[in-house]
Amino acid sequence: MNFLKLFLLFSLLPVAFSHETFDSRLLPRPLILEYPDIAETHFNDLENELRLHCDSWRFSVEANNVNPWKTIPEECAGYVKDYLTGRAYAFDLERVSKEAGVYAKSVELNGDGKDVWIFDIDDTLLSNLPYYADHGYGLKLYEEVLSLGFKVFLLTGRTEGKRKVTVENLNNAGFREWHKLILRSADDHEKLAIIYKSEKRSEMEKEGYRLLGNSGDQWSDLLGTSVALRSFKLPNPMYYIP
Amino acid sequence: MNFLKLFLLFSLLPVAFSHETFDSRLLPRPLILEYPDIAETHFNDLENELRLHCDSWRFSVEANNVNPWKTIPEECAGYVKDYLTGRAYAFDLERVSKEAGVYAKSVELNGDGKDVWIFDIDDTLLSNLPYYADHGYGLKLYEEVLSLGFKVFLLTGRTEGKRKVTVENLNNAGFREWHKLILRSADDHEKLAIIYKSEKRSEMEKEGYRLLGNSGDQWSDLLGTSVALRSFKLPNPMYYIP
Fold it and tell me: Which residues form the signal peptide (chains A, B) (predicted)?
């Protein structure tokens, strides 16, 4: 902001130096020097206030302090849209993917085919946002854990009836290899996601799998029982699934 | 930013209108009109880039995706300082406290004296930052859960030898009532915080306490085993304790 002040100083200098010679009726000097400054300050105050507020809401959501939540706060709708359509969401996704990759490479695999990485599907491997849907969202980490020798389990809240379309969606987005795709059976329809997913992870453990990593955009993908050794929370300020 | 552009337009208008009459040798017009604009754009680009990067780092830390971490990324030192000394940290603390309060009021207490809220001490009840140290940091939620009838357990990584000074610190900051203050005994010195705190929570459970809420600035205050029904993560982009 200091640079901005410097710039304003420079841009106003000619006014200061020239006001003796130029026609002061053209634009009254006090108006130029004072009015926009006050209005801009006020506007920036409001903008900063809203950003503080919505930043804080987003942090609380991502740290699972706000829980449950039903909708984006009305006043943060524009903020969330900017976040998702701007570069910040991409930045955040990239970082989670990178951190997960660092961990995946560091963790010692047993190599007996029982080392597991779990992926949620919607807004973890597949995106609802057109840009991300077309740009291999989630694919990088996926390829990485596969090449390291993890067994990949896909654990989704989608129902069994959507198996075929889900496989198509996955294939179309470049995901072609997994050990198991787990969808909700009729028995699981009424369960909270956190219960359903915990039960499925517990079954994996009972089958002797070691749950080393888990990636999901919802805390209900990651918490509960039989949690993975490390969980990676992808950002999602759009909706909350209990 | 549109408003800023408008402001610049207005502030440059007199230059445009007056350049015939004022001494153009004083400050050459192209310099004024072009140079700061480019420099400012470049500066804003860098600033935005750094903010995106450091925002993303902070999110990853608060969502426990970056784990462990040793230091604040060098390039984010100024960002973290601004965050802590500006209003954003206060905003975030306030929100966590508020969300915890909403939950505390909503949860049904058994009323048998076994309903527990756990607080970490450093950077949860007591702050290292001078401003917060003097402004009842953490006190509001503390008073709230006490008045609701929770039993308060203080669970800190400080060692038993610091009991006296810890009590003094707490009293000086306005904390005078708790059920139990648990510090590290000699046996616990070598343990990771997450192990030590899990063990202490497990002991509480064995004594019949219901761990309904837990507030801490470190994930190692909140995760592990015998986790509370709800955990509240206070922001801390300063340091990480495993």
Answer: 1-18
